[in-house]
Amino acid sequence: xxxxxxxxxxxxxxxRVVLIPKPPKEAFDKNRPAGGLLQxxxxxxxxxxxxxxxxxxxxxxxxxxxxATDLSTLKTEGQISEYARQVTAxxxxxxxxxxxx
Amino acid sequence: xxxxxxxxxxxxxxxxxxxxxxxxxxxxxxxxxQIDGVDGTQQNPDTTGAMVxxxxxxxxxxxxxxxxxxxxxxxxxxxxxGAPPGNGRVANMQGFVKSYFQQQQNVGQSHKIMYYFTxxxxxVLTGLATQFALFNGWFASIPGPTICNRAFAHYGTSFGQxxxxxxxxxxxxxxxxxxxxxxxxxxxxxxxxxxxxTMEIVNILNNQPKxxxxxxxxxxxxQSGTLPDYSFVEPNYNDHDGDSExxxxxxxxxxxxxxxxxxxxxxxxxxxxxxxxxxxxxxxLVVYDEHGGxxxxxVPPDCTPDDDAFTASADQTxxxxxxxxxxxxxxxxxxxxxxxxxxxxxxPGPNQPGGRTFDHASIPATVMKFILKDFDPNxxxxxxxxxxxxxxxxxxxxxxxxxxxxxxxQPDDDIPSFEVH
Lengths: 101, 421
Known about the structure:
Chain A is mostly helical. Helices cover 52% and strands 5% of the residues of chain A. Chain A has a domain at 53-68 and 76-96.
């Protein structure tokens, strides 16, 4: 995917050409045992996901409250605008700042 | 101000993985004695007591398997030769072979940690290093592994971390991306693609997902002239299937093929060069996060200790002694690419006359000094101003590198174009 995009970049200014060798196909091995860096990356990713779930859970709680709002109680422009602000923030995924540990 | 600095609009940092200076660039000393590399006389003792010299026998792949130890205690052994922490011990860079031996108890395999590449094998990295600026004295920020070293590039500190553990941001220092955004400027971390993801997960990805983009977007942004003021590029960290073809790891982390990393460095360089306006207004730093346990002969210098709150305990270092972040990690390759850099310039290291010392804290320090130089923090709220100006002791003490941009622009027809054949 990245390679395809790279190929469309124009090279119309003259430069000194230096040839570089093509790596062998055997260099690619997705069955290579993952090293410590990639294993650590997976741990960090899972941790990041757990934090995301915590945020989403807080989000869903708020979504439930907003869905349950009796719209007939929103009488003023101020009340409607506050409702709109909260819903828009959620629809734009702008979560409130999470509390610091 | 030089013409090069006057034109500067963008800084791009490409951070590769786990190779030492001597391993990748040391052989260049044969053609330029200013380069503090290797000449065959550097050596390390093995576990039989025999001395093992550096040799130009590095291969692209299948040689550094298992992955050499580069955790804090392992690097301590590599730097101090096995002398335990305490007063009077001397850093001598004599423990690399001993350290690698510990992993397989194989004397022959342990010698491979002393191998280095000939320049002919690395035409892109050595070509850029000899065309632009090579740093003799760029060191990893910590004598330890990836995550904590990369944190220095983002925050100017690792908040006391010396390992790969998860750590939650606890302030007070903002990432350089947050500071750039506070100043109303633009910044982005470009990771290769979804399957490769990023190494900047727990704090930056979790809290600032909008500053991330893929490498395809980097290429598109270069082409369209919409590159942010500051960009940090991550290589592909693993072999995986792409949409239309195999995507080979390009990070050069052992035991990934080094040639794929060469091609990736070239893609970043070529994307910038291909947009003439961008080429004229961009400084590209190619640097490695740490040495990956591979031999280098230059003793990492002492440095300004980090904040008192950021001391790693003896349990964390696993050496029996705490660490106050008062010594840099092992030296890594670093090359500054810009048409405004004089051709074939070598920035002297700490052991040379006029020597300068850099580490990854130099990256946020440089962005603050050059990209955000005209920003008036008094336009921020008092709270944001305090956050914006906050810099760790290490970042405050770090040297910056864009003074290397001169008044004279290298002509395009002398600039190398690397093409795969």
